[in-house]
Amino acid sequence: MSFPASAPPPPSGSAPPPGPPPASEPLLVPLGYRLRDEFCCPITRELMCDPVIASDGHTYDRAAIERWLRSHQTSPKTAEVMQSLDLIPNHNLKRLVGDMLKEGGAGLYCRDEDYDPEKHPPGGPQSRVALVREPALKFSCLGPAESSWNGRSFRAGTGGVVGGRRRPEGGGEFVQFTDATVSRSHFSVTHHPSPSAAAGEYRIQDLGSAGGTFVRITPEHPREIRAGDMFMLGKHQLEVFDPSAPSKPPPSSAAANDANNAESDSELELDMKDLSLSSPSPPAPASASSSTPAPPPPAASSAPLNPFAHLSTPPVLGLRCFAPEGTPLQGRCFPIHPGSSSLGRKQSNDVSFSQDVTGSGDVVGLDSSISGCHAHIVVGEDGKATLRDGEAGSGKASTNGTWLRLSAMHRTSEPHAIRPNCEVLVGTVRFRVSGEEHVVERDVKGEAPPIAGDMAGAGGERRRRPELERRPTELDRLREEEKVVERGEGGESKA
């Protein structure tokens, strides 16, 4: 692939790369060329990966214009007031950029008329630009309808993102929420190298939120569970515990590393009908039910109470319901024995979310968001327990999903690997995750190699990959503006 014949010839000794590089290799742009205006975002001055048309008639990269509109009501091009905040995907331009990248990327660039070859001799210390393919995750909001994120999306690149209601100290990409169930510093998404995947892997981490961060468990990807894990069916949340282990008090919200969230989240007024944000309670005697008959009142003792001490066959694990606040099942414990145990709204399930609430003998479901046969837990001969969504043997997923909670309230979780086509829940805001690959410009550190054969040396062998650094853009300036807005004139953060 060569540069267009209509363009002036490139500087002596330069040559375009023969074709698109692999995902792990950068494509060095020949000296004397610049990105064409029609492919350049007016805000970031970088190649547009997801072009959209705003109400001012101009095309921008989606991430850049969405960030701009969070703090501006005017057009970044004309400075006139935007008539609408709606963004229309520019499918033709996105397809054109993709086609040109497949052909080597030469068509994206044109001759830079301001380039002076005498000031930039080949091999000298000068700024070089490389096009680099980077993996990314796109988070598309599925609801609820009242969320400000409904119908919108954000992208997590290799630099990662942090999400919450208030920007944390320091730089980096920030995703802001206004939802009451989202904490000031709620979650982060980071990229990590992986020996099993050339593109690495992404991991999500709860930063000690109150509302929790959840990952959906699917029939195709069951989850091994152990004592201390928590998961949610419908609006009910359960904690897994070891019946033979001493009882532990609920997690303290005064943990040093989570003190900031513990203080900031005290102002949240949450709708407990949608999601309870309380921590798991200590083991409590089980109420009279078909699943766990109530044991006799224990004598006063300092020894921990085992809710299954009256059972002839001790269970492998126990489940304790701790949310939502006020549910008749709150504090109730359910035994999990070897084999398969079903969970659902029907009374016939081993863990049933139904009860005779009136005392008339009529059993009713307590949570309409839970399916009749919602999920099941399989305990193998090795004693390992696996949580699976859907009815055993059906292969079908439940309607509203089974969700793994990454950590207890005000507790920072371990990073959890996420993959494309999964779903995550931030408080009560639901996202579908999809994978994509976008092309970004990076500056080359140090001296530029000779122009001739930038990508391949004699004999066709590929040269050592140059060191790359992120280019500061107009988007970085916007982030700094947002920080100024969020701070008072005296430099202290506003409450």
Descriptive overview:
The protein is mainly beta. Among the domains are: 27-134 and 446-486, Herpes Virus-1; 213-294 and 308-411, no CATH class. It is built from 4 helices and 29 strands. β3 and β4 (59-61) form a beta hairpin. α1 runs parallel beside α4. It is elongated and about 90 Å long.
N→C terminal distance: 56 Å
Poorly predicted parts: 1-24, 250-260, 262-304, 446-468, 489-495
Helix content: under 10%
Question: What is the CA-based Rg, rounded?
Answer: 28 Å
Structure summary, number of beta strands: 29
Mean pLDDT, all residues: 76
Individual helix count: 4
Biggest sheet details? 12 strands, antiparallel
Beta-strand content bin = 25-35%
Shape annotation: elongated
Structure classification: mainly beta
InterPro entries: FHA_dom, SMAD_FHA_dom_sf, Ubox_domain, WD-SAM-U-box, Znf_RING/FYVE/PHD
Protein name: FHA domain-containing protein
Organism: Tetraparma gracilis
Comma- or semicolon-separated keywords:
single chain; 495 residues; mainly beta; Herpes Virus-1; twelve-stranded antiparallel beta sheet; five-stranded mixed beta sheet; 4 helices; 8% helix; 29% strand; disordered N terminus; disordered C terminus; FHA domain-containing protein; WD-SAM-U-box; SMAD_FHA_dom_sf; Ubox_domain
